């Protein structure tokens, strides 16, 4: 009896369950239909987002491309190899922005019906520039180089001379209205060599002199004086010799240890000619396309370094060139032991993310200024070395590679890179992009670009650069006086550069 | 046609010599000849053979750095060679004097720098002798209340002798100690019975009996040191200062691979390598004569 009752209730319950399930299913279907109807009624048609004319234009622009990839019915996957370089790991967006751009390109292709998916493969290198270039150049020469690669703008000369890269003028013209109208116009000259554009600017920077506010205070400077220093430099009232004098005072009064007055990079690099430029020197003769060494200015340059050396004012340590950036230099500067640091704006990014300096502490401790002029009333100066994306000659799909670079040249993506790695903007629209403008440091250093000079684009510039560094190293370690340095420098230029350099006596 | 016995013997000798001759030609003579040829060109990263005659040699002999790199090479080779040989002798003498197991242990310990990856070894040594306060030695000195000493700065040559020598002397140590062990014990026991001191035994018995090994090691080590730059590159990289430890082969490396922006002057760099090749050949012949190494190679007059 009990058993029958139980079965009856179960049957009843089963009946109820079935009903509920049916109702639920009906509700679901109704919901789906309603949802779809609502979506259909409210969703903007594609034509609302992109004007029909724009859409057609896009289609037309990509028409060639469709033909190029020989669009069959099955989608083709195209792999674009890309190599980029830091060496600071904060600049990893040089690589990942390309990957993001490829994803955007894939969406775009989908919309306009280009049956292609694009994939970016390759690596971001944190090796030294010398190692990166070595690998890159040999790969390019061997025909196994990447499709897209990043290098400094000065490489354009060598890369173009060797026929390793393609000129981009036609593509830039074709896709001008995509993003290139927005590129800060001065940057184009940095990637122009022999009348053609060879690279797309990726970022730029300025190389300021950081000064330690806390140490200046201990030297008796008021807040007002400290904060006015960059302006004094701008007005040409504070010269390189004033810099030396302040540093010497700090050493003499024991505010910093001997040799810790002014520090500079420990190896060869783009910074070396800045002081030559501050004394009014020229590096390149556009008429002949040769490098220039003005020996009168180089004499002033070596005089200044000799005066700063341990033999004279004891401002620049003789050990400096034997030190390592990450192991010795950044930790020492961040620890507040150095009065003036001839750095780059990206160092701030490195200090904050890798060397344990907090944002507040940075502003408390450091100010930054242009390189003062060599003489009173002169113009201050700095140096910019924009990075650029290049496309190699062996790239099978140059237009697709170019489109990836084009989409990576985007206000938002590039601002992320700029803020994370402390580099300056390349697009006008970034200057009002909230991602970019919220960074006070970039806003405060932006003006420096106006005073920035570029290194010359010449295949022998590397040898010139190396020679400057070697001779300065000789002065600082006590091997040379200023005159001996000048003599050695002249000989080095003569033997290594031959007739690529005009030596002006 | 049947070959005469004499002729077939000759053919057999030729066939037997072929593998060695081919290897030597392919891997030694050919690269050497190629280096000489490259030194006559302006070959760079573009790999274009632009012939320039002896232009590169003229450039080198006019170069302001030539005197520095020659001096550095002489100091480096002589100093490291002396360190390697003397240290090897000390290790050999000590490790054969003490208990057998302990001796093996000493030699094994001494092999550690050699089995470490060179980059790790270089980093370790740079840390120990760092000129700054955070270096290992300096941090000890500072803790003891002293002033830090700029080791790699003031004593860059001794530093390099140590960095290289700790590796080089493990080889000489092993060669010398096995040579010492092969000296019949009778001589030493007899000397001892006659009342000879340890010093006399070393001077009158051991050293004369292992002189061939020492001669071989000196000859071999000189030649390898002339072409060695790995540890200088990894530690001081030619510095501190203006070419103070830039040996010739390191300068060749820098010209070929190490300049800022990668100039890659292969032609000019090959000039230095060619000169080193000539120096190496001359030294080989000199050692062959001076040490009379031929006598080492001839068959013993009686077994």
What would the keywords be for this entry?
heterodimer; A: 505 residues; alpha/beta; D-Maltodextrin-Binding Protein, domain 2; 2 domains; five-stranded mixed sheet; four-stranded mixed sheet; 23 helices; 13% strand; globular; B: 303 residues; mainly alpha; MetI-like fold
Question: What would you say this structure looks like, in words?
Answer:
The complex is a heterodimer of chains A (505) and B (303). Chain A is an alpha/beta fold and 505 residues long. Chain A folds into 2 domains: 54-205 and 385-453, 3-Layer(aba) Sandwich (D-Maltodextrin-Binding Protein, domain 2); 209-383 and 460-504, 3-Layer(aba) Sandwich (D-Maltodextrin-Binding Protein, domain 2), CATH 3.40.190.10. Chain A contains 23 helices and 16 strands. Chain A has helices spanning 2-42, 46-49, 52-61, 63-68, 93-112, 129-141, 155-161, 169-174, 186-190, 213-218, 223-234, 240-252, 274-278, 295-308, 325-334, 345-354, 359-365, 398-408, 411-421, 434-437, 440-445, 461-476, 482-497, and strands spanning 76-85, 116-125, 148-152, 192-193, 196-197, 200-203, 209-212, 262-263, 284-285, 290-294, 340-342, 366-369, 382-383, 387-391, 452-453, 501-504. In chain A, the strands form 5 sheets. A 5-stranded mixed sheet of chain A has the order 2-1-3-14-6, with helices on both faces. A 4-stranded mixed sheet of chain A has the order 8-11-7-12. In chain B, helix 3 (66-97) packs antiparallel against helix 4 (100-115), helix 3 packs parallel to helix 8 and helix 11 packs antiparallel against helix 14 (266-290). Chain B is an all-alpha fold and 303 residues long. Chain B is flat and about 70 Å long. Chain B contains 15 helices and no strands. The longest helix of chain B is centred in the N-terminal third of the chain and has 34 residues, at 5-38. Chain B has helices spanning 5-38, 55-62, 66-97, 100-115, 118-128, 136-143, 151-154, 156-181, 185-193, 198-209, 211-226, 230-234, 248-258, 266-290, 294-297. Helix content of chain B is 73%, strand content 0%. Chain B has one domain: Orthogonal Bundle (MetI-like fold), CATH 1.10.3720.10. Classes of the chains: A alpha/beta (505), B mainly alpha (303). The A-B interface holds A 129-130, 133-134, 137-138, 141, 154-155, 158, 162, 267-269, 318-319, 321-323, 328, 460-463, 465-466, 469-471, 473-474, 476-480, 487-488, 491-492, 494-496 and B 45-47, 59, 62-65, 131-132, 150, 152-153, 236, 239-244, 257-265.
């Amino acid at each position: 009896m009990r058993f029958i009752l139980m079965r009856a209730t179960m049957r009843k319950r089963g009946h109820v369950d079935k009903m509920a399930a049916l109702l639920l299913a009906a509700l679901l279907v109704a919901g789906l239909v309603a949802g779809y109807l609502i979506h259909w009624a409210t969703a903007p048609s594609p034509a609302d987002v992109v004007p029909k004319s724009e859409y057609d234009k896009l289609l037309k622009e990509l028409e060639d491309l469709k033909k190029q990839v020989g669009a069959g019915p099955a989608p083709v996957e195209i792999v674009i190899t890309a190599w980029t370089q830091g060496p600071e790991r904060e600049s990893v967006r040089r690589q990942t922005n390309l990957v993001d751009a490829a994803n955007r390109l894939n969406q775009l292709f989908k919309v306009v019906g280009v049956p292609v998916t694009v994939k970016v493969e390759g690596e971001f290198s944190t090796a030294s520039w010398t190692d990166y270039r070595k690998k890159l150049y040999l790969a390019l020469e061997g025909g196994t180089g990447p499709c897209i690669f990043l290098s400094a703008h000065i490489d354009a000369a060598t890369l173009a001379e060797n026929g390793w890269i393609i000129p981009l003028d036609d593509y830039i013209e074709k896709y001008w209205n995509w993003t290139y109208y927005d590129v800060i116009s001065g940057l184009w000259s940095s990637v122009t060599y022999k009348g053609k554009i060879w690279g797309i600017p990726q970022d730029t920077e300025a190389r300021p002199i950081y000064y330690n506010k806390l140490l200046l205070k201990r030297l008796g400077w008021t807040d007002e004086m400290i904060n006015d220093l960059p302006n004094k430099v701008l007005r040409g009232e504070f010269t390189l010799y004033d810099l030396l004098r302040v540093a010497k005072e700090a050493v003499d009064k024991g505010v910093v240890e001997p040799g810790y007055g002014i520090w500079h990079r420990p190896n060869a690099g783009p910074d070396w000619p800045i002081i030559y430029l501050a004394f009014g020197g020229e590096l390149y003769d556009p008429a002949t396309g040769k490098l220039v060494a003005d020996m009168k200015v180089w004499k002033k340059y070596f005089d200044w370094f000799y005066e700063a050396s341990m033999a004279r004012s004891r401002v620049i340590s003789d050990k400096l060139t034997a030190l390592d950036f990450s192991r010795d230099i950044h930790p020492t500067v961040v620890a507040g032991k150095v009065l003036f640091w001839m750095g780059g704006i990206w160092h701030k990014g490195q200090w904050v993310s890798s060397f344990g300096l907090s944002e507040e502490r940075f502003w408390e401790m450091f100010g930054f200024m242009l390189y003062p002029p060599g003489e009173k009333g002169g113009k201050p100066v700095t140096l910019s070395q924009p990075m650029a994306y290049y496309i190699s000659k062996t790239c099978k799909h140059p237009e697709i590679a170019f489109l990836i670079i084009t989409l990576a040249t985007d206000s938002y993506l590039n601002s992320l890179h700029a803020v994370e790695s402390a580099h300056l903007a390349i697009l006008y629209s970034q200057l009002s992009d909230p991602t970019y403008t919220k960074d006070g440091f970039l806003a405060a250093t932006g003006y420096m670009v106006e005073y920035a000079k570029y290194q010359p684009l010449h295949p022998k510039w590397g040898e010139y650069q190396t020679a400057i560094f070697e001779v300065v190293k000789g002065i600082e370690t006590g091997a040379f006086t200023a005159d001996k340095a000048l003599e050695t420098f002249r000989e080095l230029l003569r033997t290594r550069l031959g007739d690529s350099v005009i030596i002006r006596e | 046609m049947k070959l005469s016995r004499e002729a077939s013997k000759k053919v057999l000798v030729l066939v037997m010599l072929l593998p060695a001759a081919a290897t030597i030609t392919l891997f030694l003579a050919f690269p050497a000849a190629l280096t000489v040829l490259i030194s006559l060109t302006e070959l760079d990263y573009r790999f274009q053979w632009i012939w320039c005659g002896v232009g590169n040699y003229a450039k080198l002999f006019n170069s302001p750095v030539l005197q520095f790199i020659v001096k550095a090479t002489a100091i480096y080779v002589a100093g490291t060679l002396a360190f390697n040989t003397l240290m090897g002798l000390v290790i050999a003498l000590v490790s054969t004097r003490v208990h057998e197991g302990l001796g093996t242990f000493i030699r094994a310990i001494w092999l550690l720098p050699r089995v470490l990856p060179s980059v790790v070894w270089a980093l370790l040594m740079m840390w120990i002798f760092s000129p700054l306060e955070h270096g290992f030695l300096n941090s000890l000195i500072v803790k003891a209340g002293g002033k830090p000493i700029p080791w790699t700065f003031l004593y860059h040559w001794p530093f390099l002798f140590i960095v290289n020598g700790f590796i080089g002397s493990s080889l000489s140590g092993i060669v010398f100690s096995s040579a010492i062990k092969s000296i019949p014990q009778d001589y030493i026991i007899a000397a001892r019975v006659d009342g000879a001191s340890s010093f006399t035994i070393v001077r009158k018995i051991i050293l004369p009996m292992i002189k061939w090994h020492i001669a071989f090691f000196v000859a071999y080590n000189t030649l390898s040191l002339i072409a060695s730059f790995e540890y200088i590159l990894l530690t001081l990289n030619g510095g501190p200062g203006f070419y103070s430890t830039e040996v010739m082969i390191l300068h060749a490396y820098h010209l070929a691979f190490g300049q800022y922006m990668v100039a890659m002057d292969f032609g000019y760099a090959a000039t230095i390598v060619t000169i080193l090749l000539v120096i190496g050949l001359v030294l080989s012949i000199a050692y062959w004569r001076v040490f009379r190494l031929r006598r080492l190679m001839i068959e013993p007059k009686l077994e």
